[in-house]
Amino acid sequence: MDTEISRLIQAELERQRHGIELIASENFTSQAVLDAMGSCLTNKYAEGYPGKRYYGGCEVVDQIEQLAIDRLCTLFGAEYANVQPHSGAQANAAVFLSVLQPGDAILGFDLSHGGHLSHGSPVNYSGKVYQANFYGVEEETGTINMDKVAQKAREVHPKLIICGASAYSRDWDYKRFREIADEVGALLLADIAHPAGLIAGKLLNDPIPHCHIVTSTTHKTLRGPRGGIIMMGKDFANPWGRTTKKGEPIMMSAILNSGVFPGMQGGPLEHVIAAKAVAFYEALQPDFKTYGKQVIANAQVMAQELVSRGYKIISGGTENHLMLIDLRGKFTDVSGRDAENALIKADITINKNMVPFDSRSALLTSGIRIGTAAMTSRGCTEDHFRQMAVWIDEAISNGQNEAKLSALKHEVNRFMNQFPLYS
Ligand SMILES: *Cc1c(COP(=O)(O)O)cnc(C)c1O
Question: How many whole angstroms from 7 Cα to the centroid of ligand 1?
């Protein structure tokens, strides 16, 4: 028996139990999601799609995958869903492979302003294979100026426009993005990896009616297993006039499905797909909307408390589950890395993050990103988040004071005892 890995898994469980988790992209799944992921389904090969597999013995996993697809379509009001992408980055890569040719121009949100690596960063596949262009936020307001997005689109003639981000605390104007995409003849992709759970709860603008294609992760605010998904509100005939041997137009659903498999991936992870189905079931229950409302209320309280303590929040506040803090608003000599290191000594986990127009490097950064989805899943409400903001401020302000950080850690650990995890 392998005692080394089981000991380490136990150590990680203890870390998750006793620390404050504020990484905006993390969450705590239900025990039911964990159980599905740890099931015998991991043994099954199922290349292909339900009813059209390249392996025998798929009668059961066909039903599981179909249930995941149907639940996801119900959750978002989508006509089409693919639940096979192994991650959010894989979902995006499969879409790019499906709708772009190498060298095509794309237009996405600037990574250094809060965008994602998979939207055209030079270190990612998307930036190496396609000609990447970016829009960003205004330095004054910290928000996206849609007239400038339109101007940029007219300049670079992208084949694909991407909206969605990893560190943007404002909602998206999908309708205006679609008008711009239509004007320049681009397809529009919304990557809702971060706010998916809040969109599912109908607490934010809905991308489905406006965007040709929507991708997401399933493990952030959606609170499922680590994975990716692709959806379309309505299937449509491919815009390039490709036809079948019989001369019928090929639908985008077929193009996206073959982009995922065999284009980008091999066998699907049916244990993870089962866990996705469980998470979609949970997200369809009325209390998931209550959860989403609490996530947003908690983020707003956290932002207010930090602002009252002299911190600068990019765009001045939040409409979703996260906020990006520019530490230069309060300190001249504290980088994102310093803040992250101080907080971890107090058992508070956040991540350092570039802020728009950052004067420091990506390794140092001038910002931190904070999200409320994970701690809300643990049962925290507004008063708890006010308390967390106080501890964050105390830890960052006393980053060199080991005794103070150690005292804070004890308080944090005692606080977390109220919120048991997988007991
Ligand atoms: C997290 C994220 C992804 C990628 O997810 P992985 O599962 O880590 O590949 C893609 N897009 C956005 C906007 C994200 O925030």
Answer: 29
